[in-house]
Amino acid sequence: MNDVLILLLLLPAILxxxxxxxxxxxxxxxxxRRAEGxxxxxxxxxxxxxxxxxxxxxxxxxxxxxxxFELCVGEYARSGGKGAVLAxxxxxxxxxxxxxxxxxxxxxxxxxxxxxxxxxxxxxxEDTSRSVQCLVIAASEPALVLxxxxxxxxxxxxxxxxxxxxxxDPHHQYHFTTQLLERTAHTxxxxxxxxxxxxxxxxxxxxxxxxxxxxxxxxxxxxxxxVAGQVATIGGGGLRVQxxxxxxxxxxxxxDPQHQGPFPLxxxxxxxxxxxxxxxxxxxxxxxxLPRQTKARIVRRIYQHQxxxxxxxxxxxxxxxxxx
Length: 324
Prior knowledge:
Layout: H1 2-37, H2 42-54, H3 61-64, H4 66-78, H5 83-96, E1 118-123, E2 132-138, E3 144-148, E4 161-169, E5 172-183, E6 188-190, E7 197-200, E8 206-218, E9 224-235, E10 238-242, E11 252-255, E12 269-274, E13 282-287, H6 292-310, H7 316-323
Antiparallel strand pairs: 1-2, 1-4, 2-3, 3-6, 4-5, 5-6, 5-7, 8-9, 8-11, 9-10, 10-13, 11-12, 12-13
């Protein structure tokens, strides 16, 4: 009698929970079909479902959204996740195609960096002029592993706060803040992060600056005539120079081969694309035949300056240049 009474009392609760149970089983079956279609094994499907439920996320969203997947993995890693589980999640990332994104699609995590990607790394307490060039040799769990391209790199202790920037394609650059987890004789292990700032390359193409520069332009007798000027803007494609002389558009010019300054411009050739109609006007000069390495050095210098401004003001090198 008592059992029947208890059952009658619990019956409304059981009937009320039945639709929720059916919906959960339906979502599980849908997730199973989609995950199996992605090539995930039974154990991998259960693992992803379990993590999603623990973090109160939509399991099916993890199969199609890079951002959702990286947030889930990042939260598990920060909570002290087991190495074996992290390794399995790295394999799932590959199966879902989240390890290499289509061109133009933004990266969501440092876990998506490709092996062989180069990046600049420097201490958060220093400016970008102290950066070290490194190569990514592993980007899966549990850490982003780099090797310095020259030497062993600075003697940063574990726990050092670091900043980094890299350019995975010609049109975008990223920067992020991380922490040094471990260093060996030849490698640096960094903490993964999903906080990546994506910037357009065009934000780095120009730098309003000020330094002297002498141009050599064709003279009346076929010789080259020196014209002293002041660089106002520099970019990867050319210069804007204030000069006292009238120089018409189309004039070929060359930077003095003896030039010494913050950029490798000695002997660089160009052509005036907008001339100075009156004295004291600016020349817009387009580089001609600029070597790829020289352009890369110019762009990198501008890039370091811009990143330094975004991550904490002008670098000391830039302030020294402005003071000069």
